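Discussion board: Methods & Data

I've been asked by a reviewer to show the raw model output for two of the constructs in my manuscript, not just the figures. I'm not sure how much to include, so I'm pasting the format here to get opinions. Each protein appears as its amino acid sequence followed by a line of C-alpha cells. Is this the kind of thing reviewers expect to see in a supplement, or should I convert it first? Here is construct A:
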Amino acid sequence: MRVFFDASIIIAALLSPSGGSSLLFEYVKQERIVGLTSQTVIDEILEEEKYKKLNKSRNEIVQFVAQSGLIIREAIGIEEISSLQGQVDLDDAHLIAGAVQTKSAYLVTLDKKHLLREDIRQKFLPLRILSPKELLQKLVNK
C-alpha cells in the first residue's frame, strides 16, 4: 500500500511520538506500508519559521526524515500542478500531484480546511485522502 505523506503528518509525528502520525511511521519502518513524500514537502518543513515554531533544530528534523523510512521523490514542478489550478487550493496542489505521480493509493493529511473536505475527497478519486486515524482504521481492518 503506497501512502503519500503531507507535511502536517511529519510535523505531528515530530511533536507527538505516541500519536497516530507516529504510528504511521512505525508502519513504514515495518514495511507494512510504503511511505512517500516529495522534496517540496520536506522543503516546507525545513522553512526557518516552521522549525523554529516546532522548537526543533533543522538537524533534528533532517535526522527524523532520514530515519523515517520515507521515499522522497524530487520536488513537484509547476507543470505538474498546472492542471490542478482551480480544483484545489494552490498551496496544496503539490500534494495531489505528488500522490498521483508516485502512484500512491492514499494521501494522508491533517488539513481539514483544504484536503479532508468531502468535495475534495470525491474530486480526486481513486486517490483516497484520509486522516491518520482513518488510515490506521483501514490498516487495522485489513
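Construct B, same format:
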Amino acid sequence: MTQTIIRVRFAETDQMGVAHHSSYILWCEVARVDWLNQHGNRYKDFELETGISLAVSDLHIQYRQGVSFDDEVLIKTKLIEAKSRRFSFDYSLIHAGKLVAKARTLHTPTNRAGQAVRMPEKYFALLAQHLEPL
C-alpha cells in the first residue's frame, strides 16, 4: 500500500465550496501513478518502452463525506488484482482521520490502437509482487 497526500485546490470545488465529485477521479489517478512510481515502475517510462497504456475500463466511487478547499486528503492505494489482461486498484480517501470516499478502478492494458493486449511478463511480474488482495 502506498500513501499519497493531495490538497484540494480551489478550482476543484463547486459553487457550494465542496470538492466536485469529478475531482476524486483525478485524485485516484494521481495516487495510482504515485503507487507505480513508489514501486519502481514509472508509468511514463512503461508507456514509452512498451507502447502500452493501462486504460481505465471500470470505475466505482462511494462518496461518504465532502471535503473543501485546502483540505488535505490522504489516499491509500493498493493493487488488489493482477492478471495478464487486467489490474485493479483500491483507494481509501481520508480527511482528518475520517474515510471520505472509497474507490476502485479496473485497468486493461491496451496498445496504441486501443486494442486489449497482455501485459508484458517483465512488467506483470513487477506489479504482481505488490499484490494485496482484499
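Answer (T.O., handling editor elsewhere):
This is acceptable in a supplement if you add a one-line summary per construct. For B, something like: Residues 2-128 form a domain with the Thiol Ester Dehydrase; Chain A fold (CATH 3.10.129.10).
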